[in-house]
Design goal:
- Two copies of one chain form a homodimer.
- In chain A, α10 links the parallel β8 and β9.
- Chain A has three domains: 60 residues, 434 Repressor (Amino-terminal Domain) (Orthogonal Bundle), CATH 1.10.260; 117 residues, Rossmann fold; 128 residues, 3-Layer(aba) Sandwich (Rossmann fold), CATH 3.40.50.
- Chain A is elongated, with a radius of gyration of 26 Å.
- In chain A, α1 packs across α2, α1 crosses α3 and α7 packs across α8.
- In chain A, the strands form two sheets. Chain A has a six-stranded mixed beta sheet with strand order 7-6-8-9-10-11, with helices on both faces.
- Chain A is an alpha/beta fold and 347 residues long.
- Chain A has eleven helices and eleven strands.
- At the A-B interface, α4, α5, β2, α6 and α9 of A face α4, α5, β2, α6 and α9 of B.
- β2 of chain A pairs antiparallel with β2 of chain B, so a sheet runs across the interface.
- Chain A binds a DNA duplex (16 and 16 nucleotides) through α2 and α4.
Chain lengths: 347, 347
DNA sequence: CTGAAAGCGCTAACAC
DNA sequence: GTGTTAGCGCTTTCAG
């Protein structure tokens, strides 16, 4: 009941030879038909397809990969977290990959593991992938420089910390979103905007921090000290207690919605009304954002657009190894104004 | 610059033969060492490992799979959604798989695609997986009966709608959680508990509905009509508007936290205070649950425990094909009581 | 348009 | 303990 050579009466799963025999053609012709190659007569094509169907034939991808050197699969390195951002991006990547005929292999990294991304990439390379997308990595202080990565790599959400043979560029566009959020607050008349940041080891947190700074500077606003969170609502709550004690804060940009929600709760408990006394903008537009109290003003991350755009570039690099990489394009900015923002209170 | 046989001066990536040559042993010995087989002298083992390291050797898994008939990877069929439940379960599965030496292949299904799960399973089979986990499927009216699945399948969150050669059982344990939630409300003194359900095509929604019914029946409480949602906060809000108009509702069990949050907002807007007038229990314990207004009483889903438990059983079935399947065990119940529940108002 | 031969890089039996 | 010999099921030349 173990391994059986197709030989004999054994009824193991059918091989392409079996299909060939049934269709009365050579094995190579089956291969041609199944790969959609040209120069196959309609008649033969139909017969082969019919035979394959009848047998319930399913191609062995290991053999295909071994012979062709390509696996038709792309690997994803992502964070082992259900945080809305990373999880949504992963789904977006899956969706973007699905219709391309590539399969997806997923490896998660663990926060705090210094070998994280490099190890994950290594394991993907070993499994055999034609391309890799690294989604929202964390800076663990290690580069992939010493890893010999010989496939294109797309890095989403990080500047470009990876040195690879086939660099593909990065993407994300958080700065536009952050600027929109900060600008919104400034336009409302706030003198400045405080920032509740994510953990600085996350590139995403750094990006938003930098973009917030830039927006403030462009407006000539002074830059208040940053309050640091860890993406969780609990950390937002803790930050909120501190911020509530400072009467000069009238506007806060939180680096994600969860923290914004925790922040708002702390503010409310401290008797500072949102948005009457303090305005708060979040980041992500999580599903419940419109239904919390007060409904949260936030910027929606265009996960699907980012994933699709990035994947298009990655596939281009895979399939046209010698061509120039496709230029990145900016994802759409979608500021969703709800009820957590308002002009500053009168003095 | 394309495909090169190791022959000649070409510097393609190293093969196990190259390692063998460098270590001065046969290729088979390299294979032995790398697979951790016994009966290899310490000296040889060290030399091989060193040579592999020096060359930056990485095993070709396609070849390994082709020769051995095993891919050492397990496939996951999941919903293409960032909903907290399915996404968390996926992460749990990845985490559970990671330390087992298996790789993960992920295929999403799309809601509304009748060929969904069967198609996804087929594509995984084609890629070659040693086992499959189907996570929280939706009933699309199609069974996998006609698919010849010759690997163990673990179904999480569905009764057991799949007929496979190696059925592995299902898991989830939603009924215990739901009963705890319903019971909590009943214990508080509510005469009955309304239910805001998920879409009935989801097995998870049906499970919770059935468990709620059972809990009510066990308590001798009357069963009010079910209000149906679609997991979204928006649908919870819509349901809330209807429920708010009925003064007899004093307690609601929502099938997930998002809907509970939308529900609470609608109730609040209608002037019905939570928990003073109406108590609400959610399901999942999403990250912001503790920070919305009021902090949400909910049951925490033990995603990691469910994933680990299920995977242990799946791997057992993979590695001991002739042994009896491991019996399922119930995951822990964790009712998190916060401020959205209270005794019913006095009449 | 179609077929025959020769591997892809590894593991499985068996010998030594 | 270690090496030899055959393939795994495809794709790739290169002939027809």
């Amino acid at each position: 009941m173990t391994r059986q050579t197709g030989r004999g009466a054994a009824s193991s799963t059918p091989r392409s030879v079996d299909v060939a025999r049934l269709a009365g053609v050579s094995q190579k012709t089956v291969s041609r038909v199944l790969n959609g190659e040209r120069y196959v007569s309609e008649d033969v094509r139909r017969r082969v397809l019919q035979a394959a169907e009848d047998l319930g034939y399913r191609m062995n991808n290991a053999a295909r990969a071994l012979a062709s050197g390509r696996t038709r699969s792309i690997g994803v390195v992502t964070l082992g977290t259900a945080l809305y951002g990373p999880a949504s991006l992963l789904m977006g990547i899956e969706r973007a990959v699905r219709d391309t005929g590539y399969a997806l292999r997923v490896v998660n990294t663990v926060e705090g593991d210094p070998a994280g991304v490099a190890g994950a990439v290594g394991s993907l390379l070993e499994q055999g992938v034609d391309g890799i997308v690294v989604s929202e990595p964390i800076d663990e202080g290690t580069s992939m420089a010493e890893l010999s990565v010989d496939v294109p790599v797309l890095v989403i959400g990080a500047p470009s910390p990876f040195a690879t043979a086939h660099p593909v560029t990065s993407g994300g566009g958080a700065d536009l979103l952050t600027r929109a959020a900060t600008q919104h607050l400034l336009d409302l008349g706030h003198l400045t905007v405080h920032h509740l940041s994510g953990p600085p080891r996350w590139f995403a947190a750094r990006d938003r921090l930098a973009a917030w700074r830039a927006a403030l500077a462009a407006h000539g606003a002074s830059e208040p000290p940053v309050v640091e969170g860890d993406w969780s609502a609990a950390s937002g709550y803790a930050a909120g207690r501190r911020l509530a004690a400072d009467p000069s804060v009238t506007a806060v940009f939180a680096a994600n919605d969860d923290m914004a929600i925790g922040l708002i709760r702390a503010l409310a408990e401290a008797g500072r009304r949102v948005p009457d006394d303090v305005s708060v903008v979040g980041f992500d537009d999580i599903p419940v954002a419109a239904y919390v109290t007060p409904p949260l003003t936030t910027v929606r991350q265009p996960f699907d657009a980012v994933a699709q755009e990035g994947l298009k570039r990655l596939l281009h690099a895979i399939e046209n190894p010698d061509a120039d990489p496709l230029p990145p394009s900016d994802p759409p900015v979608d500021l969703v104004v709800r009820s957590s923002t308002a002009p500053p209170p009168h003095r």
